[in-house]
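Course assignment 3, question 2. Fill in each field.
Student: A.L.
Task: Predict the tertiary structure for the chain below.
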Amino acid sequence: MTDLPTPETDQPHDLVGIGIGPFNLSLAALAHGIPGNPHPLTTAFYEQRPAFHWHPGLLIDGASLQVPFLADLVTLADPASPWTFLNYLRSRDRLFPFYFAERFHIQRAEYDAYCRWVSDQLPGLHFSHQVDAIRWNNERSLFEVDFTQLDTSGEAEALGRAHTRHIALGIGTEPYIPDPLKPLAEAESIPVIHSADYLHHRETLLDAEHITVIGSGQSGAEIFLDLLRARPTGREKLHWLARTQAFAPMEYSKLGLEHFTPDYSRYFHALPESVRDELVPHQWQLHKGIDADTIAAIHDELYRRTLHGGWPDTTLTPGVSVRTAGRVAGTRVELHLEHTQQNTRSRLTTDAVVLATGYRERPLDHILTGLDPHMRRDASERPHIDDRFRLVLDPTVTGNVYVQNAERHTHGVGAPDLGLAAWRSATILNNLTGTNAYPLPQRTAFTTFGLTPQTPPIPTQNPDLITLTQSN
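Answer field:
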């Protein structure tokens, strides 16, 4: 393994992004050619995967985004950007077909293709680069970012280091597997897979005699529907289990959606920590419910299978938790279930399990070990994140570390929502440049959250930063 040449040592970046998912891709797109800025920011974004892919295991045929196409990478901050979804369609000669399709919600596969179109053209994106450590160099007033360049098989090929004035963490989330099912999910002999890998294992699952889906969110519903459509009538042999008390629809009323506005994010951030922690679990239906069209499609499919008499061989049971799980006869799974309202227990034997159990924010501690002495934490040892999406660090660190989709505990349910991506990226860039490069709306909701509404921060001119940027 060799060391990469590091010309960055002499010419530090203004911004280094770690992770290239939709949120950091949004930041990279808006940072490229900031309006009215004749001196472009110098940026580099690193991602350990070899190319951009957005939940490839869940790009089920026909599955749609739960946000409108306007929630692309840039439009809600800069509709004139060359990186809009509409410009993507134009580049593919598909504007008129899209116009006549009259689709406000596009398919997930199309969103993934759009993001890959951006990532293929946008400069400064470095795939197959794994970031290993971040440190603050006090003498140079710069962050040091150590990375490993990977070869086509994912093995280490070379080491490198970048220097930067600011960092944006966008490392995303990771699949969550409940503890009782972890040993089975790690065993290769039994198909117990997370929904994130569904399409990779779909054929194996369909070969199983009996399949159980666990989880009541959108992914669980889409997978149950896809399996149901692929199974013969009367011989479906499907179970769908959920901890929630119902297979409930997503809150999609117009005023309900205002919880995904900048106004609500500011309101939530200003609440006491204890109030924020109490609120989030009670707001599950804002982001963990099921799209009403998907619920209707499931019911329609089940109803269609009763037309000639009889009921489909399916069991849909909410209010159930999995206590323990184990193998039976080497190739089957036995789930030990508990119904919380009835206070009853039962066992279910199945041949395959799909865990639509959601995602958790990837821990920041490992990658931020070098900054740990400088970080401020809350009562639960989570990083403090201010209203401009910056880690709160001690004053000796003069650079900023911005976070994307790791701030639900400080900014609320909108943190992972694609509809806030462009606004958050613009907020970060306005703060980083000390300018109002992307003018953002003062008000975004008809709802007034709280008796003392929070006003958006106004960027202040930062001559020192602008001079640094121009010097590059």
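Instructor remarks: The first strand starts at residue 2 and ends at 3. Residues 375 and 381 are 10 Å apart (CA to CA).
Grade: pending
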